[in-house]
Structures
1.
Amino acid sequence: MIRAWFATTLWKRIMAMLVLGILFGAIAGDAASSISWMGTIFIRLIRMIVVPLVFVTLVSGVVAMGDPKKLGSLGIKTLTMYIGTTVVAVTIGLTMAAIFQPGVGVDLTGAAPKAVDRSHSLTETLVGIIPTNPVHALANGNMLAIIFFAILLGSGILMAGRKAKPLAEVFDAGSEVMLKMTHLVMETAPFGVFALIAGVVGTGGVGKLLEVLPLVGAFLSACILHLVITHGSIMKFMLRLSPVRFFRDITGAQLVAFSTSSSSGTLPVTMTVAEENLGVNKTVASSVLPLGATINMDGTALYVGIVAVFAAQIFHIPLGLTQYVLIAFSATMVSVGTAAVPSAGLFMLAAVMAVLGITDVQTALIVGFIFPFDRPLDMIRTVVNVTGDLSVSTAVAKWEGDLDEKVFNASAVD
């Protein structure tokens, strides 16, 4: 039995435990929370390796480029793709909101106000990229600051040439060690996923979605359309690769994203999937994916756009083309500074709703209304976020000549 367990591909084990977790949660109810410690251990293991994994592999990846100019080319393509796909995601979300009209006829009576802090402004986010103390940034998991320092350190090693070769070898060896650690941690994923999903189902999170079917319908439709149309088209028409193989090969990362509701928490799995299943070179994966886990929030931006329209309809605020453009622009911009942690999208709402003239009191009412069922929706939008990260990393790797198409086209996860 043990031999058969380890002989089964990891994503299939995760899928099986996900289904079992749903069944267990439905049967056990609130008692399912008694195994929450398993999920907590899994999350802590993931978070334990995220910062050293990102830092070490990113420095190693920059050094492996061999030419600082390549880093500039890669960076421009990455940022353009991330921002572009986010704009498309928000546009699709607003379109679905206009079709479904989720806020029409909704009564907020009984909703307990829940205030949220405003997200950081774009200026604050940009300034915060530069750490005043790199060690402090590493200790606190400030991803943008870590990425910035790692790129500078890698560039410095490149410029130092032969004199820095011993340091380059240390980071290269460290990168390999961190990837091996990731494999070890991922063996606990099936059990962590089981506990996490059982807890969500057991406490009634999924059932609460029935209370706001139009909002959920608009959101799910937008997510599916974005995945199929946007990322499917990137694979099919921009890269000339099979969308079916792409979506099949990223299943493991999507399942972990679904259970953890955290892009950064899924990052070790995302990087492993990109390299081993999609054929993305380590150099690209170690630089594009950490950045994506920090600034690429397609699902979150899409969700916030829909909720903004939902709120405007409830409070009878007329929406014209100008208002839709303002929502799309503000949702795209604030998504850059959104933390890659569960329910982070709620912290974006105040900033986006403010452009429509919605007050803090009204925002608190909306958040209080949707908060009880936000976790299941957060699980779904994290899947969209991680899928976008993998799609963009594949595209950038292809354009940079760093995609092994033999690996992409292989049946590695069958």
2.
Amino acid sequence: MKVGEAIAEILKREGVEIIFGYPVNHVLEAAAIAGIRPVIVRQERVGLHMADAMSRVSSGRRIGVFAMQHGPGSENSMGGVAQAYSESVPILVLPMGYARRLAHIDPNFNSVASMRTFTKSAEPITSPAEIANIFRRAFSRLRNGRGGPALVEIPVDLFAEEIPGPLVYEPAISARYGPDIADVRKAAAALVEAKHPVIYAGQGVHYARAWEPL
């Protein structure tokens, strides 16, 4: 199995049905062959906003995915990634990267180095053998804790390589956690006793789907 096929298979196992993208990024072709619908956009930031919307309207159950070309395409995406980070929206960002022998040569744009400060994680694929581990870490960060984008850079020279052996990948889990029950009782008592209660809640209520009655 080649690298592109392995990435597409991982996305399918994680429940991805749509991938937004701006060519050229070979993962878009691999995803289409695997049955994931590619939606091609005219400008990178627009594609980021579309992936952002998918994550928001599904309360993070369907992670928005955006793939773009290396160099200028990745540069154009920075604003959308930064906005998703500032608003705690989980998005998987898949920039193509320069070949590994050129990845750190100035002035080539390096997505991992440039976007590390406004992503939950930013990691390049350096070996086909590590693809499953890298994507599991990315999806674990997307599905747990405060929301935000996770970035996996795919060097262009990696697509033609084969992964060693069969793909071993289990989807990332979402850990459940909650507040101390004593604090919940205090908050509930304060609400019950209030004559004109007002709840000022952030989008964490949306992602937790906390609108259902107990």
